[in-house]
Model the fold of this input.
Amino acid sequence: MNEKIVDYAAQCYGIEKPQLKPMSGGHYTHVYEFAQNNRQYVLRIIPPDDEYSIQAVKAIQGWTSYFASHGASVPKPVVSRNGNLIELAEQDNKIYTIVVSEKARGTLAERLSSDQWNDTLYHNIGKAVGKMHALAKEYIPSGLSLKRPEWNMIRNLYNSTKCLDSSQLIIKEKYEKNMNYICSLAKDKDCYGLIHNDLHFANFYVDLDNNTITLFDFDDCSYGWFVMDIATPLFDIVVLYNRCDKEKLVSRFLKNFLKGYVTENNVNTFWVNQLPYFLKELEIYYYTLLFEKYDVNDHKSWVGKFMVNRKYRIENDIPYISLDFEDLLEIK
Done:
């Protein structure tokens, strides 16, 4: 990252550059943390990109600001010394976007061991997601240019742009069939709206002292089915804790997640029963990603473990996880 841009970013928020400490986890953006007035903050510098334009960042900041102001579990965006939710810096004919938010308390969810989780935490993840979806039903962007795109208009876990080669024709057919079914689903206000769309365990913090959850990283937020934000953490928990009894783990997680979810937003048995289709979409996405880029024969890594018999399972329509999903929704 260009030092002049970092200097300017620090000035915008009334701090010195040495106060900015680089953080890990930013795949595209440059992320720093700093302290000010006994509070912790996160500063992000976003390089120019077709999907992360200035208007896109404004739209994301507008949504998260609304989300935070209505008591939801998200780091509150912070205005600059100039009173702006975003600042711009130009270097070499490129415009970088700068944003700051409060830092979430706790530990990144994916860093917790399996024995650190409990039913209350699973419940509170569902509650946080339910609150987000309930607010999404009422949220109206301040202008058309600040409306986020549909889920299939940007890169994300459910919209892979990767092409499968000739050895993967059956999987390609399965992908297209599954996608056609998903696209045939209803899109009314009760089931479709602004979602996080990247809600894996690296995108929320857990405060073990208070059993609280904080969602963050809304860069992929878009309009999609609310059930997508249920399927993603459900899929991810199986990947993270692959040594556990999968059915028992998923049953416990989803049962408590849904208990929390329905305290904030409605979900019926129809949509719970659609989870296998969205899980299959994620399964195919990760298969294509890992098949192309990683050593799938390293059975000691999570990649290798995930890929064992994965091609066979997809080609033969074996569910990602075998459960009676409807039975886990106690409120029917």
Remarks:
- The radius of gyration is 20 Å.
- Residues 54 and 190 are 30 Å apart (CA to CA).
- The first helix runs from residue 3 to 12.
